[in-house]
Write a structure and sequence with these properties.
mainly alpha; 76% helix
């Protein structure tokens, strides 16, 4: 097993290192500095290996730290009517159940499994067990110091802090075992990347139970939560026995990885992606437009792709409206929480930058544009003339802003309504700034994603993302939005900054697209 673990690490490290080197080679500043035979340079490979090993170590702790500090302990501090330890355990329990189904480690189709089991002909059972037990070990080791540190800070018993990581691992093992039993009974493998609607529904119920019930003063008693967690240790032992004695890991991996083999072939991937996309495109030949030029092209695109572009936006808007209505109902049922909600709305506007980042449909819009329009038209030289590029950019920007403005208007209007319902504000301008600033956040992300699509066009002919710079920009965008979650600023100040920044960014984006897009807006090799 030690040999299998070493080979597994070497395999993962190799394609991680190659991925890092490929990304470095895509950065314009480094492209000319790095040698052509980049993958043969020993120094760079050592550097990339160091980054890969560091990521393996950091990933065991940083994700769990953020999960515990934000989702569990941080959230548990917001409910003032119940003891913090009771709420923390109440939230941790359903989220752990969700994690057992959404993050199994065993039923996740990954490239390293395909390489090892089907290309390198490694023993499927041994390879799967070694990697799964290693992942379970990472769960225990990653949670242990953090649980002790945060748990002792909240006055949890030391023995409970030590046992909770084993309880979490035990629950994962038991759920994995149940899935293996189900595979033996029905011959149908579980895939954590293709969850059914019933599992999604159960997850939504568990999520609501975790965070909504404490608002009404309802939470599992601490002894009940502890008892359920401790029960997971013997259940985990049962699960471990099943995992170790299960023999058909090759069959279950073959089913899991059946779709992955096609995805790794660019031609097949393009075909599958196009077929999936085409099913959502209207085939109604009566669709037409009375516009001219690029306006005609854009109008036809929007009408034919209405299902792709608008369905998710409508769903997001309905969910946002439902959440706002739910919070309004809670404020009427529990008037004592109105001052806290009012204070949060008045100072937590920067937090909504991250929310708008999460619900923005910019990447979906640009991907649909490339796959079903630009993929073909970029082969024509007239399509890259500076004046035509800028004209089409502005037309598309108008459309994507419309799509993103619907949920933004629901959120902005809902926040203004919540502000009014929870006590209002001394300055009526806050209501206007609140709505306009949320719309400007939405507009910023619309501009941002369309601009980087034109300046960095990341897709090749097979619709695969091949731009390391594009990925870095996406990571940087996420980092800035995440950092803004920690900022607290009055509505008027942050709102005016947001509006001004959005206006300036739109001007800069237009200039950059006009100057550089004719050279950068092309199909990647």
């Amino acid at each position: 097993m030690n040999r299998t673990l070493r080979i597994s690490f070497s395999l993962k490290n190799t394609y991680r290192v190659n991925g890092i080197l490929f990304s470095l080679k895509q950065i314009p500043v480094l492209r000319n500095l790095l040698p052509a035979a980049l993958y043969k340079v020993r120094g760079l490979k050592i550097f990339a290996n160091i980054l890969s090993v560091l990521w393996e170590i950091v990933s065991a702790f940083i994700g769990k730290f953020l999960y515990l500090i934000i989702m569990i302990f941080g959230a548990g501090m917001l409910y003032k009517g119940l003891p913090a330890d009771q709420v923390i355990l109440h939230i941790l329990l359903p989220l752990t159940v969700i994690g057992c189904f959404a993050n199994t480690k065993l039923f996740n189709p990954t490239k390293d499994k395909y390489y090892a089991i089907f290309l390198m002909k490694m023993d499927a059972r041994e390879y799967t067990l070694v990697n799964y037990l290693y992942a379970i070990g990472k769960v225990i080791i990653g949670f242990m110091p953090l649980m002790i540190l945060l748990g002792r800070y909240r006055d949890f018993p030391f023995w409970l802090c030590v046992l909770l990581p084993f309880c979490i691992a035990g629950m994962k093992l038991f759920v994995a075992a149940v899935s293996l039993w189900d595979y033996e009974r029905r011959g149908f493998g579980y895939n954590e990347n293709k969850l059914g609607k019933y599992i999604w529904g159960c997850m939504a119920v568990l999520l609501a139970a975790a965070y909504v019930l404490p608002i009404f003063g309802l939470a599992l008693p601490t002894p009940v939560s502890i008892s359920i967690f401790l029960l997971c240790i013997p259940l985990g032992i049962v699960g471990m026995i099943k995992v170790l004695t299960f023999h058909d890991y090759r069959g279950i991996n073959q089913e899991l990885l059946s779709g992955l083999t096609n995805q790794m072939d660019s031609a097949a991937k393009t075909k599958v992606a196009k077929q999936t996309s085409e099913k959502k495109i209207s085939a109604d030949t009566s669709i037409t437009s009375n516009r001219r030029g690029f306006e005609f092209l854009n109008d036809l695109f929007i009408k034919r792709h209405k299902k792709i572009l608008w369905n998710s936006t409508k769903k997001i808007s309905y969910i946002c409206a439902f959440i706002i209505a739910g919070i309004l109902m809670v404020t009427f049922l529990k008037p004592e929480i109105k001052p806290a909600i009012n204070a949060m709305i008045l100072t937590w506007l920067p937090y909504f930058v991250f929310i708008m980042y999460g619900i923005n449909r910019g990447t979906n819009f640009t991907q649909a544009l490339f796959m079903n329009c630009d993929h073909s038209l970029l082969t024509y030289s007239f399509y890259k003339r500076p004046d035509l590029v800028l004209r089409l950019f502005r037309i598309r920007l108008r459309e994507i802003m419309k799509i993103n403005a619907v949920p933004a208007l629901v959120i902005g209007g809902g926040l203004a309504l919540l502000l009014f319902a929870t006590g209002g504000t001394g300055d009526p301008l806050n209501y206007v700034v609140l709505i306009v600033s949320v719309l400007c956040m939405s507009a910023f992300f619309s501009i941002h994603y369309l601009m980087i699509y034109y300046l960095l066009q990341p897709y090749n002919a097979g619709t695969e993302m091949k731009s390391g710079t594009y990925r870095l920009v996406l990571i940087a965008t996420y980092g800035v939005c995440f950092a803004l979650m920690q900022v607290r600023m009055p509505i008027l100040i942050f709102g005016m900054i947001t509006i001004l920044f959005c206006v300036l960014y739109s001007i800069v984006a237009s200039i950059l697209v006009y100057r550089f897009a004719p050279r950068t807006f092309r199909i990647r090799a």
